[in-house]
TrEMBL record:
It comes from Ilex paraguariensis (yerba mate). InterPro entries: DIOX_N, IPNS-like_FE2OG_OXY, IPNS-like_sf, Oxoglu/Fe-dep_dioxygenase_dom, Plant_2OG-oxidoreductases. This is Fe2OG dioxygenase domain-containing protein. Gene3D superfamilies: B-lactam Antibiotic, Isopenicillin N Synthase, Chain. Residues 213-313 form the Fe2OG dioxygenase domain. It comes from the Eukaryota. PROSITE patterns: FE2OG_OXY. Belongs to the iron/ascorbate-dependent oxidoreductase family. Keywords: Iron, Metal-binding, Oxidoreductase. GO terms for molecular function: metal ion binding; oxidoreductase activity, acting on paired donors, with incorporation or reduction of molecular oxygen. The lineage of its organism: Eukaryota, Viridiplantae, Streptophyta, Embryophyta, Tracheophyta. It holds the Pfam family 2OG-FeII_Oxy.
Length: 362
């Protein structure tokens, strides 16, 4: 089982020198790894970060086939369900989405094969900057220094007229492209429904945020077993920078979302997408829909693989509350406009600090 990180940590030591390894996968394959290197120890910044909601929780479920139904009554009910999910949770599960199960399994398998490549081959795709079309690695460099996370990743920055992916392993690029196209289709339909749920024309979001040039960030993540899962972290609490994020995973749990001040461990249905609202949707909706805080925790038994796909507007778009949702007397703008590319490049991996910076205090 996944284990939440406590607020106090004992001293950690390890006979493995992290400077001599290039990935967490390599680190975990080192002989006699009984404890984590001290620079992987994670200190929570929120005193409530270890709180976990243990009781059974019903996660909102959106039936995509009803959301796209030609029967008005069915679609109207599905839009109401989406509206409620985005307000109450900022998170939901999408079923009956039409993406073949073989494609979902195929991208998990292809990503696993990428992580199994020799380290020297993966270094070809390391990248240097957050906007590079291909990057892979482990440790993240941030404005506050380096974060040693118990995670390896490969990221692709995807735009409609540009798709670049590692040419290894064989077939990875092809299945990643098909998967990204499927995700883009789902998100466009979700945003049509969001337009209507906000009382706007169904193409309002698409036109205002220039979705024909929208950006995707494809992130495949490998979380190997950790000998001390209570001391390290896969990803610390954070919100995503886009509009919606789609996530799939293998059958190993590890995703937790913050709901009503407590952490909830998510166990999705087979062949479903987990979807969370992200920062740009909160800004665009003028705070009606909340960008959800979530994290990845660890276990000491099994490797977890997840595929997160952040879907945003175009890089050139300046995102602000929709003008039709703002009036100076009753609903003033709650956020300052900001260019999406600038937002992505400044986004820290810790809570919602950048979203808080563009929020207007009233």
């Amino acid at each position: 089982m996944a284990t939440a990180a406590p607020t106090q940590f004992p001293q950690t030591t390890s006979n493995v020198q992290p400077s001599k390894v290039t990935s967490v996968k390599t680190l975990t394959e080192s002989a006699d790894l009984k404890t984590i290197p001290s620079n992987y120890a994670y200190t929570p910044t929120d005193p409530n970060e270890a709180d976990v909601l243990e009781e059974e929780v019903s996660i909102p479920i959106i039936d995509f086939s009803l959301l796209t139904s030609a029967i008005p009554e069915q679609r109207f009910k599905a839009i109401q369900d989406l509206d409620k999910a985005c307000q109450d949770w900022g998170f939901f599960m999408v079923v009956n989405h039409g993406v073949p199960e073989s494609l979902l399994k195929g991208i998990i398998n292809a990503s696993t094969e990428f992580f199994n490549l020799p380290e020297e081959e993966k270094k070809e795709f390391a990248g240097k900057n957050i906007s590079d079309p291909i990057r892979c690695g482990s440790t993240l460099s941030t404005s506050n220094g380096k974060k040693f996370l118990w995670r390896d990743f490969v990221k692709l920055v995807v735009q409609p007229d540009q798709f670049q992916a590692p040419h290894k392993p064989l077939g990875f690029s092809e299945v990643a492209l098909e998967y990204c196209n499927s995700g883009r289709r789902i998100v466009r339909e979700l945003l049509k429904a969001i337009s209507e749920s906000l009382g706007l024309d169904n193409d309002y979001v698409a036109k205002t945020l220039n979705l024909d040039s929208s950006v995707q960030v494809f992130s495949a993540n490998l979380y190997p077993p950790c000998p001390q899962p209570e001391l390290a972290v896969g990803l610390p609490p954070h919100s995503d920078h886009g509009l919606f994020t789609l996530l799939i995973q293998n059958d190993v749990p590890g995703l937790q979302v913050k709901h009503n001040g407590k952490w909830v461990t998510i166990n999705p249905f087979p062949n479903s997408f987990l979807v969370n609202a992200a920062d740009q949707l909160e800004i665009f909706s003028n705070g009606k829909y909340k960008s959800i805080i979530h994290r990845a925790i660890l276990n000491n038994k099994a490797t977890r693989v997840s595929i997160a796909m952040i879907n945003g507007p175009s890089f050139e778009t300046s995102v602000a509350p929709a003008s039709k949702l703002v009036d100076s007397e009753n609903h003033p703008a709650a956020y300052r406009p900001m260019n999406y590319k600038e937002y992505v490049e400044q986004q820290p991996l810790q809570w919602k600090s950048l979203l808080d910076q563009v929020r207007i205090e009233v």
